[in-house]
Amino acid sequence: MLNSKIPEGPLENKWRNYQIKSQLINPANKKKLNVIVVGSGLAGAGAAATLAELGYDVQCFCYQDSARRAHSVAAQGGINAAKNYQHDGDSVWRMFYDTLKGGDFRSREANVYRLAELSAPLIDHYVQQGVPFAREYGGVLVNRSFGGVQVQRTFYARGQTGQQLLLAAYSQLYKMKHAKKVTMFPRHEMLDLVVIDGKAKGIIARDLVTGQLKRFSAHAVVLATGGYSRVFRLSTLAIGCNGSAIWKAHKRGAYFAAPSFTQIHPTALPQTSKAQSKLTLMSESLRNDGRIWVPKKKDDDRKANSIPEEERDYYLERRYPSFGNLAPRDIASRAAKERIDAGYGVGRLKNAVYLDFKHAIERFGMGIIKDRYGNLFKMYKKITGVDAYKEPMQISPAAHFSMGGLWVDYELMTTVPGLYAIGECNFSDHGANRLGANSLLQASIDGYFVLPNTINNYLANALKEEPPTVEHPEFEQVENEVQHHIYKLLAIKGRKTVDHFHRELGKIMWQECAMSRNKKGLEKAILQIEKIRSEFWTDVKVTGSDKEMNTELEKALRLADFIELGLLMCTDALQREESCGAHFREEYQTSEGEALRMDNDYSFVSAWSYSKDGFKLHKEVLKYENVEPTVRSYK
Amino acid sequence: MKITFKIWRQENSNTSGDFKSYDVDGLTEDMSFLEALDHLNELLVQRDEKVIAYEYDCREGICGQCGVFINGRAHGPHANMTTCQLHMRSFKDGGTIVVEPWRAKSFPIIKDLVVDRSAFDRIIEHGGYISAKTGTAAEANAILVGKEIADKAMDAAACIGCGACVATCKNASAALFTAAKINHLNNLPQGHQEADKRVMEMTWQMEQEGFGSCTFTGACEVECPESISITNIAEMNARLVKAKWLR
Questions:
Q1: Which residue range forms the structural domain that includes residue A319?
Q2: Of A467 and A351, the one with more pLDDT
Q3: Whole-number Å distance between alpha carbons of B177 and A385
Q4: CA-to-CA distance for B8 and B20, rounded, in angstroms?
Q5: Dihedral (CA of A110, A115, A117, A121) sign
Q6: Facing residue for B146 by CB, picked from A130, A135, A452
Q7: Is residue A456 part of a domain?
Q8: B99 with B15, same domain?
Q9: Looking at the domain assignment, is residue A395 inside a domain?
Q10: Considering the entire predicted model, what is its pTM?
């Protein structure tokens, strides 16, 4: 039975009630308690720095050469907060409601309310840490609109908000490293979790420089390892982003919630060759003035500018007259896929749609468009070599964010006692679809404000137990299993590269488990992925050894886990016989092709447990005591 | 496209390295430079050879992890661009591309094209932050920061920590990197309390790490992917002199 541990009392008082009742630890005792934090993005660095400030002994791990590289760095747009600085009617309640509705009513009321409640103090915190947010001439903070919300609550630092927040968190973390309260382990990758007597007590990590396996013990383990959308191979994520840490935790007992809920972003740059490794995101803001279209004629080989107006299909404006080009991400992505699949795609690989600024330039003049989007047009030119002031951009949907992740309760603890999951790697606040500028927010709130106030409730009791030690036979056992796993992989010496298998997996996941899904396709995908798994384990080739820096081995280990995660994602998408948010099952749509939610049967969080015989479903029923779930419409 | 890559191969920090040549066919102009290296690595695996180690992560020019010397220039032939943003259309079909790791004593080679830039982290550790604990912040608009000040701080704060400034400098100076962080924080009212201590400790650590001195050649700002201006170095020096006089 899943206990979400939601505190008593009215929604507005829950977090305060929780804090009043949670256990405290004497400052002198905190230094005796060790916490492992895996990941150094906004969630990980924020948690590690704050826990260290509170007096805990912290070990922080990241696979990159420095904490400053974590993928939070790449977020462009901004961070939401219910400050109501614009005097436009914003409030904690409104932000709570927008987020809950944006997630299509598949998240927990109490968690989402806490997210909105803590958003304002978070902006105070980041300003204090030296984040150079955009300012008015008079010196006050600026806000802008974002992602279909009717108030202005997004704070930003040019197009580099994620970078500036991460650098603040990173410098706070290295301040605590300097104070010898945090030990940093860069270029270390967690390969397994050690559970002793049912509690998380440490990890096995690989030193990516020497290849050595190392044991680390702690009173509690915090995973802050980010999203896993690289399962699609082509995504907007960093190349190193992976699901291995949470997958290993899942196999050791942590339930995985809503694994198939993936946000596909409509405005990325299309794939141009088979060798492509990454899809670059172009800010969603472009859709404010750009018009999206494809030719009305199939396989039209004319250049965009030679296709006359009456032969263009502005399909978003046609299908969603009231929202038009500003339809939400899930809708816009699905509509693009529909046109591309029907044979109207453009570009060399026929996998893109046009985003055209011709009318905007005619209407506002070149100067205004340059002022609004100059940096994005410059970036587009750098990557594609094309001048988008003269011909339309080519854009395409790309995997972007994992709403799913390890199931956590109100304390952000997984189903393994002593194991926490924070930031994008958990399933908590976004439901079936995340609103723009809420990801930096959730990662930061989890790391800075929530975890440091909930972990004490567990650690207070850990004090009474034997301190964990890496000499325990369970560490020996898990390390041997990891070593065996690596040897097995290196011994295959097959014929195909890791990237070959990743491309195959990506193709299937993209076709069957991305923007639109159906029973037949998902069943087929599961069989195909099982085939990839068995081929991978008999025919993959990894050169070099495990006792050196070996980037090919790193990729192989991550892919082995992605393959298994792909199976769970398809299983999850198959089980959920409804459409909600980003999860669109073709069988469940209205006559107009819109998502059809089945609240009577599916108003629950799907949490999966792992066993050798297959995944087992557990349900956390979602209760809406404060709002009435409604239908989202964009017509 | 067909390219001959001449790439620095070095087993680890204890061995010496040398250049190896690889003829690579089947490249396209749309490929990024790093994708061309990915392609080469797949060929190497198929030939039972060890892959080339090189660094990258975000592949969109912001994480700062990538960075190699390409035909004698940091991040390749274009100014103000990261290695991951470079595409094969910038090279001639049939040409040769020489690829080397960042060359600086303070960035020791770990393997092939991978270097250790932890010296940058240690500079940050010595005051590249504001000493305030989580939970102690006042209301964000309580301290006003004019737009010009915020913009100036942001110009400096944009540094991605890639190390191109050091790699391209004939003195291997980290002055641009260090100045960018100092000026980001010292320009903001939030950073004023520790301003003098910050500039003294960070520049001291910069010297401890063995980086060379700045002689204002301006090479760094040409390669900096964020176009951070060398006027930041002059500002840092002025701040340093002031901080020392005030003591």
A1: 267-400
A2: A351
A3: 30
A4: 6
A5: positive
A6: A135
A7: no
A8: yes
A9: yes
A10: 0.97
